[in-house]
Amino acid sequence: MKRTSYLQCAPKLMQHLFTQEQLLNEEVTRTLDTKLWELVKLRASQLNQCGYCIVMHSRQAMEQGESARRIIALNAWRDMSGFTAKERLALTLCEQLTNAQPIDDTLYCALSEEFSDDALVTLTVAINAINAWNRVVKMFKPEPDE
């Protein structure tokens, strides 16, 4: 069944998500690493089982220079070598926020030691943004060419 086109029905609302992406891109470039951002978007999409987003973010991660090996390993990153301490912390935060789990002081302190305040805010908003996109896409199931 073809579902409603969220882009056609609510262009003003969707523009807010696109604007957020543009702002995040600027902040990620300034405070984080684009490859890390792609890993986080891909991991959240895996957790949310958003097939459309998994395909899109796998492709975008590879365009940013991410290896196929790490993309494949991402689903089991805790058991795989090849992820840095910083990436592991970002992925932990991603999983905690995506699964609506509390962020305890131990995790917050570890994150604060690895990320600047600006980067930590950017990372948190980026995780929120991909979760919002995953939920919209899962609801309306756009075709890959939309």
TrEMBL record:
<dbReference type="InterPro" id="IPR003779">
    <property type="entry name" value="CMD-like"/>
</dbReference>
<dbReference type="Pfam" id="PF02627">
    <property type="entry name" value="CMD"/>
</dbReference>
<dbReference type="GO" id="GO:0051920">
    <property type="term" value="F:peroxiredoxin activity"/>
</dbReference>
<dbReference type="InterPro" id="IPR029032">
    <property type="entry name" value="AhpD-like"/>
</dbReference>
<dbReference type="InterPro" id="IPR004675">
    <property type="entry name" value="AhpD_core"/>
</dbReference>
<feature type="domain" description="Carboxymuconolactone decarboxylase-like">
    <location>
        <begin position="23"/>
        <end position="93"/>
    </location>
</feature>
<protein>
    <submittedName>
        <fullName>Carboxymuconolactone decarboxylase family protein</fullName>
    </submittedName>
</protein>
